[in-house]
């Protein structure tokens, strides 16, 4: 069974609940005094500040992969269900946040269906899978993006003669996807799109390949020799062509050799096979500054481009490893004390029966983690994206390590100052009487704000228990917490959580709210206004029904469950199967789970989560704003595992949190002006507000980028529990 692998712009602005806006006294004191008292630490976390890691020991499946308990099962309407014509023979559960998700959203072939498979951007059509080589630029003072020309810059690779055939997903893995075009009597074409591959591999079976470019041909070589582009055929194993407008040179490797006819008119350049071909063409950009004329790639400033010291060396590297075709990749992990071993095992096929290893490209955070630094080829990198330079790495397996630590519910430091302890206890005594608003007691509100309030209640309970608030008061508070949480995990909330059979996941039904008294006029499932698939439906509950931000929403609830379980183990024993449904929705590590996709939000190659959803295809690809909330989700998973003594759940949460931490520190935080990731104009902001597949913004979707408090205030420095595990994650 294939491995399972967000985006879209978050739908609707995030609203603060009354509770969050008014901030409890315990919260204010705990947050403000954290550094001094070790109860709740919120640090400004530049890399110069040493931050806690998370222990991870063993990665395994999360419990039984059975049907989610207590939740009504719903089937979506065709408008919001997966488009089966694009999924081929693959069945639910479907990935909802894969880097390639745009291939299967909407029509799959319109202008917004761009997929960022670094170092390229790709789009599928009815006869081809097209490549664009992007460039970095500052679009505005707050927007750093990958630009690409969808007309002139398009390099189209497909079939010369064909019956119209939309692509389908043939298979996918943790790190790649294979698309298939079936041209009927004209054969088939499979396209292997793998993150970090300097080649895109096209596998033809009885089809006639055709490659076209909107640029003007400048030079043409076959097997290293200059050749004429005069409508005559050339047989060879290596075709190289240089293009005018973007100063690019591309190489096409053929296994076995192929005869291609070169023409240089309408379109400006084309290579076409007259006969059906069975074999593989591997396409790679070998020089992005061929004649020193590229506006973006020859600037030499290290950010608008990355000019290599040995450009010919990179071309030779491509030649040496072209026979090792990578069709996908699997992520494996294990633990050794305070070290986590994370391996990318590339699926490699030798095209000439040799033992030549794969050539891939690593992002900055992966380079830091590599065990074998000798496998990294320095001095020949030519690819830069908005996420930094991608360095060439040779090897069929990447072995990486992560340093881990062991911090649980409370800070490792006790409150030594008696006056501070007294102040915190007094505040807890006051806040322990707080109750959820009426509409959230019945689950009439949205799961995101509900989760935040429940998580803060659990945190206050943990603080109160730690500083000696009376058991009687804590028990009453826990009763309220349990009641507020149960309506969600048991599926009895007015805005019910339901199991979506179509995609495979837990989603909110949606509530057509009426007040007073608080109630949902739609009456609950099967009447679910959040699942209609139209823009209004997708706006319910911050897009939860379209799989928007599930790790944020459910992460808070899972954290609340973990806090409640620690203080009231009997509750955990009764409700563990229901909480497990939420854990599996966002952090299922098993491809054998028939109800949830594997690691829904996690992009192992990018080094962080994606938060968007499946409402529609967005030109800028996947996105995530609140990396702190993503971290908090995995922290909550680990704490739930601790509370119920389940090392499997605990360790999965720790591993994901460690990855999110590194990704947040590498790509969201900008501790110095001479950033290796961002140009000076962007680095001066010191934070990224939102990261998309090919755009990074200082702003957030619902915030004003000119307002400093929006970028450094409470929305970025989210509560990360009373453990002292305050990662300087920004929102």
Key attributes of the depicted protein:
single chain, 731 residues, alpha+beta, 15-stranded antiparallel sheet, 5-stranded antiparallel sheet, 25% strand, elongated, disordered N terminus
Give a short summary of the structure.
The protein is of the alpha+beta class. 25% of the residues lie in helices and 25% in strands.
Distance between the termini: 38 Å
Count of alpha and pi helical runs? 17
Uncertain segments are 1-61, 301-310, 712-724, 726-731
Largest sheet: 15 strands, antiparallel
Find the structural class using helix and strand composition: alpha+beta
Percentage beta strand? 25-35%
Considering DSSP H and I runs of 4 or more, what fraction of the residues is helical? 25-40%
- Rg from alpha-carbon coordinates: 26 Å
Shape annotation: elongated
Count the strands?
33
Explain the overall architecture.
The chain is α+β, with helices and mostly antiparallel strands. It has a 15-stranded antiparallel sheet that branches. Strand 2 and strand 3 (120-124) form a beta hairpin. Helix 9 packs antiparallel against helix 10 (471-489) and helix 10 packs antiparallel against helix 12. It is elongated, with a radius of gyration of 26 Å. The two termini are 38 Å apart.
Write the layout of secondary structure elements.
Elements: H1 18-22, H2 25-32, H3 34-37, E1 73-74, H4 84-87, E2 115-117, E3 120-124, E4 128-132, E5 135-140, E6 143-147, E7 155-159, E8 168-172, E9 176-182, E10 188-194, E11 199-207, E12 209-213, E13 217-222, E14 225-226, E15 233-243, E16 249-263, E17 269-272, E18 277-287, H5 311-321, E19 324-336, E20 339-350, E21 359-362, H6 364-369, E22 383-385, E23 388-394, E24 397-403, H7 418-431, H8 438-441, H9 447-467, H10 471-489, E25 497-500, E26 505-508, E27 513-514, E28 519-520, H11 535-538, H12 550-567, H13 569-587, E29 602-603, E30 608-609, E31 623-624, H14 627-643, H15 647-668, H16 680-683, E32 690-692, E33 695-697, H17 708-712
Helix pairs in contact: 2-7, 7-9, 9-10, 9-12, 10-12, 12-13, 12-14, 14-15
């Amino acid at each position: 069974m294939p491995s399972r692998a967000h985006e879209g712009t978050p739908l609707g602005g995030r609203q603060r609940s009354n509770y969050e806006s008014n901030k409890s006294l315990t919260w204010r004191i705990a947050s403000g005094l954290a550094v001094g008292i070790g109860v709740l630490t919120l640090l400004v976390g530049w890399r110069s500040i040493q931050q806690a890691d998370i222990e991870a020991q063993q990665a395994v499946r999360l419990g039984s992969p059975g049907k989610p308990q207590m939740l009504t099962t719903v089937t979506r309407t065709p408008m919001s269900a997966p488009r089966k014509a694009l999924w081929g023979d693959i069945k639910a559960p479907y990935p909802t946040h894969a880097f390639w998700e745009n291939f299967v959203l909407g029509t799959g072939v319109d202008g917004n269906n761009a997929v960022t498979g670094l170092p390229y951007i790709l789009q599928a059509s009815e006869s081809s899978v097209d490549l664009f080589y992007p460039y970095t630029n500052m679009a505005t003072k707050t927007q750093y993006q990958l630009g690409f020309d969808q007309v002139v810059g398009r390099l189209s690779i497909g079939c010369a003669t064909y019956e119209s055939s939309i692509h389908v997903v043939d298979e996918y893995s943790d790190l790649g996807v294979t698309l298939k075009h079936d041209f009927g009597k004209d054969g088939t074409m499979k396209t292997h799109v793998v993150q970090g591959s300097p080649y895109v591999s096209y596998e033809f079976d009885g089809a006639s390949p055709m490659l076209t470019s909107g640029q003007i041909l400048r030079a043409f070589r076959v097997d290293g020799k200059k050749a004429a582009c005069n409508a005559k055929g050339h047989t060879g194993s290596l075709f190289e062509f240089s293009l005018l407008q973007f100063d690019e040179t591309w190489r096409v490797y053929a296994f076995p050799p192929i005869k291609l006819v070169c023409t240089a008119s309408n379109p400006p350049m084309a290579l076409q096979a007259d006969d059906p071909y069975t074999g593989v063409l591997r396409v790679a950009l070998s020089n992005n500054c061929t004649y020193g004329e590229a506006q973006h790639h020859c600037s030499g400033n290290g950010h608008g481009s990355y000019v290599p010291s040995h450009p010919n060396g990179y071309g030779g590297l491509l030649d040496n490893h072209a026979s090792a075709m990578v069709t996908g990749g699997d992520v494996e992990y294990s633990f050794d004390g305070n070290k986590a071993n994370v391996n990318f095992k590339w699926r490699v096929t030798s095209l000439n029966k040799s033992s030549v290893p794969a050539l891939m490209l690593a992002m900055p955070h992966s380079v830091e983690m590599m065990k074998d630094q000798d496998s990294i080829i320095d001095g020949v990198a030519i690819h830069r994206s908005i996420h930094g330079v991608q360095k060439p790495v040779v090897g069929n397996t990447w072995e990486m390590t992560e340093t881990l630590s062991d911090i649980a519910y409370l800070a490792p430091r006790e409150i030594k100052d008696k006056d501070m302890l007294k102040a915190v206890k007094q505040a807890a005594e006051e806040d322990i009487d707080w109750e959820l608003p009426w509409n959230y007691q019945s689950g009439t509100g949205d799961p995101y704000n509900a989760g935040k309030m429940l998580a803060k209640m659990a945190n206050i309970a943990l603080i109160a228990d730690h500083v000696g608030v009376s058991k009687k008061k804590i028990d009453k508070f826990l009763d309220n917490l349990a009641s507020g949480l149960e309506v969600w995990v048991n599926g009895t909330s007015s805005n019910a959580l339901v199991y979506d059979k179509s995609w495979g996941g837990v989603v909110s039904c949606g509530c057509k709210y009426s007040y007073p008294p608080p109630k949902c006029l739609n009456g609950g499932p099967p009447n679910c206004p959040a699942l209609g698939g139209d823009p209004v439906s997708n706006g319910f509950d911050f897009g939860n029904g379209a799989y928007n931000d599930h790790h944020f929403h459910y992460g808070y609830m899972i954290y609340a469950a973990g806090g409640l379980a620690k203080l009231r183990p009997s509750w955990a024993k009764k409700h563990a199967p229901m909480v497990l449904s939420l854990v599996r929705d966002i952090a299922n590590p098993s491809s054998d789970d028939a109800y949830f996709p594997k690691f829904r939000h996690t992009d192992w190659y990018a080094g962080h989560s994606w938060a968007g959803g499946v409402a529609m295809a967005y030109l800028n690809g996947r996105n995530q704003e609140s990396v702190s909330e993503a971290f908090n989700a995995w922290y909550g998973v680990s704490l739930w595992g601790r509370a119920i003594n389940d090392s499997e759940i605990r360790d999965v949460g720790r591993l994901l949190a460690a990855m999110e931490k590194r990704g947040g520190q590498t790509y969201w935080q900008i501790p110095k002006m001479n950033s290796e990731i961002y140009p000076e104009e962007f680095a001066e902001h010191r934070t990224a507000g939102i990261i998309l597949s090919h755009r990074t913004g200082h702003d957030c979707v619902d915030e004003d980028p000119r307002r400093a408090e929006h970028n450094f205030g409470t929305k970025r420095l989210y509560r990360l529990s009373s453990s002292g595990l305050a990662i300087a994650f920004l929102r």
